[in-house]
Amino acid sequence: MAGNRTSGSVIAITGGARGIGAAIAHRCHALGATVAIGDRDDAAATGTADALGDRAHGYRLDVTDEKSFTAFLAAVEKDLGPIDVLVNNAGVMWVGPFDEEPESAAAAMVAVNLLGVIRGVRLAAPAMRARGRGQIVTIASAASLIAPPGESTYAATKHGVLGYLTGVREELRGSGVTISAILPGVVDTELAAGTATGAATLLSPDDVAAAVVAIIDRPRFLLTLPKYVGPLTAAARLLPQRLRDAVLRRMVPDQVAAVDGSTARDAYEADHLR
Question: Is 154 a catalytic residue?
Fold first, then answer.
């Protein structure tokens, strides 16, 4: 892959039927990639692929199930060839006070956001290492670096993802396999319905898709969106605790307050977390 590294690549995307995943599929496909769209809603995955046309294929994928993920990767390789890039995009989020969070919601976030990423890396990376090339891009979150009130368990899963990727990246050093993570703020999707953005601008799914293409074209480990979030959080960590708290409270949204009394998230959470 030279020049536009996306062109000619086989790119597999988890949670690819809607939102950020669909935007990634659209942008990569437009740049000449062959895209495999995996989603637990296989009809939606097929529909998104059909709308793109040639070089787009939809598959059923449940990232919480080992057999499903193994079958997805095998089917993509059989149908399309070796996977150049796996995009770990699937994610779910419950928002509200920590002591009102249903245990089922916490379990779902750990299963999808953390164990789903671990499973994807563990299943996809060995074949890439054997070929001496490949990239795994994970859509993590700015919550990998901060923890907004109301998103405590979600942030815990994203902190876990960043820790896991940091260790695996070192294990794969020199293998030809690149580990990358994109850490966006709040994105305008159903996952973020009813939440606040804090000091940052609301991102679009295509903003994240553009970041995926950028990190494929110029591989690196971390990319925050907006870009200033990374340096700002790093600088805040150097401050005394009281000053750090003051800075972060101005920067990070209070999602408990944002969703208090709101029904904006009811449909999403009923569909994804119960």
Answer: yes
